[in-house]
Design a protein that fits this description.
Helices cover 0% and strands 54% of the residues. The chain is mainly β. A hairpin with a 2-residue loop joins strand 1 and strand 2. It is built from no helices and eight strands.
């Protein structure tokens, strides 16, 4: 589906995990990275302030980039997280409270 960021495609898995692949940017139609982003809804079970990371209920540990303050996240909070994995590290690109 086209948007002002480019064209994305989504696949819905039976485990409610959405995978998005950004295909082209809107400026010149260049192929972008292509690393799949995953969006999951889960509960935070651990917050590692020193390591700037969170652990979700499924045991997955996600690293937080600068701009997402770990102090604002608390264990027990249900969140919707979008992240990608590169070189074995999962990096959050968006996190928001789940309803």
């Amino acid at each position: 589906m086209p948007n002002h960021f480019g064209t994305t495609t989504s696949v819905r898995r039976k485990d409610h995990e959405e995978i998005r692949h950004r295909r082209r940017d809107s400026a010149g139609g260049r192929i972008l990275d292509g690393s799949p982003c995953k969006t999951v809804t889960s509960t935070i079970v651990n917050v590692d302030a020193k390591g700037d990371a969170i652990t979700l209920a499924d045991g997955k540990t996600l690293n937080l980039p600068e701009g997402i303050e770990v102090e604002t996240l608390k264990p027990g909070k249900k969140v919707i997280v979008t992240y990608s994995t590169k070189s074995g590290k999962s990096l959050v690109s968006n996190i928001q409270p789940a309803k």
